[in-house]
Amino acid sequence: LVLMGGQGNLAQAEALNRELMKARPNDVVAYSNLLFLLSQSPTITPEALFAEHCRFGEHFEGPLRASWPVHSNSRDPNRVLKVGFVSGDFYNHAIATFIELVFAELANCKDIEVHAYYNNKTCDSMTQRLMALAPKWKWVADMADDELAEQIRADAIDILIDLSGVTLKHRLLTFARKPAPIQVSWLGYPGTTGLRAMDYYLGDQYGLPEGLLDGQFTEKIVQMPSGVLFNPFSDAPEINSLPALKNGYITFGSFNRASKLNRETIANWALLLHSVPGSRMILGGLGANGENGRVIEIFQQQGIALERLHFYPKLAMVDYLALHRLIDLCLDTSPYNGGTTTLHAAWMGVPTLTLVGKTFATRTGAIIASHLRLQGFVAKDADDFLRKGIYWSENHEELALIRRGLRSTFEKSALLSSTTFLNGFRIALEIMWQRWCEALPSRSFSADKENKINRQESQ
Description:
Elements: H1 2-6, H2 10-23, H3 28-39, H4 46-61, E1 81-87, H5 94-106, E2 112-118, H6 125-133, E3 136-139, H7 145-154, E4 159-162, H8 172-175, E5 182-185, E6 200-204, E7 220-224, H9 243-247, E8 251-254, H10 263-275, E9 280-284, H11 291-301, E10 309-312, H12 317-322, E11 329-331, H13 340-347, E12 352-355, H14 364-371, E13 378-379, H15 382-394, H16 396-411, H17 418-437, E14 445-446, H18 447-458
Parallel strand pairs: 1-2, 1-4, 2-3, 4-5, 5-6, 6-7, 7-14, 8-9, 8-11, 9-10, 11-12, 12-13
Helix pairs in contact: 2-3, 3-4, 5-6, 10-15, 17-18
């Protein structure tokens, strides 16, 4: 089922998952796979997607709510906070590249004590670096959900942060037991967990503007100046001049995984290829498990000849980044936008044309574009996607100018500012904690706005 979904056969994978769930209704992996597949479906409505996540919560969390503990953590708003991070991705994984910088910053904070709960047995150089930054580290892959919950309670964690959502190796059934007084979901999955035990979801003002998507989350939304802290690859190649200036034609690109390459997305790309004579497209990170064959077939059904498509397998990081030197403009997937791939492309001077939608997963591209002042690459619908794609394909000098300055713009943005991120993150945790200390319910808020209000009140 995972392989089928990974190849982009979402409808078949969904049907098989539902059959499996009928036979094994308490199989949390099958249910999680279903939610992850649905989040990538171009046909499901935001309301139906949210309802499916809520059903997951009711099924697995509902029976546990009556036994949620009464937390005895000291309600002191000024003491050192014990903050726990739960993930199965503390290895050479995209999530770990973000978290490494966060752990490094928090290691210097005297008012935060970091605890890491690693739900995996993989140990590589990234794992070793994270362990050095978070000495209160526990390997928890062999712990049952109730055992892990008891461990978290024994560690007296104040704020417990989920970094997985419903993705592989999550521990949401531990969170469903409410082992910490405040529980937060962040970074690993662009959507709700469906759990009432999860108090907050961390984002930013571009992805989750006030009131826009609150109805799609069981959690309260917290806006930070930036929802991520990007860590560029240290040996990234230098940005070259726009390839189209030399080639005389535009080259589009995508490095998103195969499961995001649904028929609707490829149809949008194909229409753009038809509308821009001579254009080519590079697709990277594919090649295994028949992925190319399915993608090629859909392109050919849309009238795109194979010679206009160039496929590359997964490569070492430096080689993957170097491929961007062949690309003029990346094209985003929908309804599950690229994230790390879009950031990597921007670091190499390549903007990504994205189609914004009505769920958080369809706003990732717009978030990055907003931080990098690339709003001209954000399309409101398929027609706008085509119009903007044609525009940038015809305006090579303007695109070349953006390319030359994009890394500099990136370096000055909140996406790369450890100070901006850390301030927003700490303020967010402080507000959550203060509300709990005062026995107040969780609520949505902007960490940046709250900080400004607090500064004004203190003057």
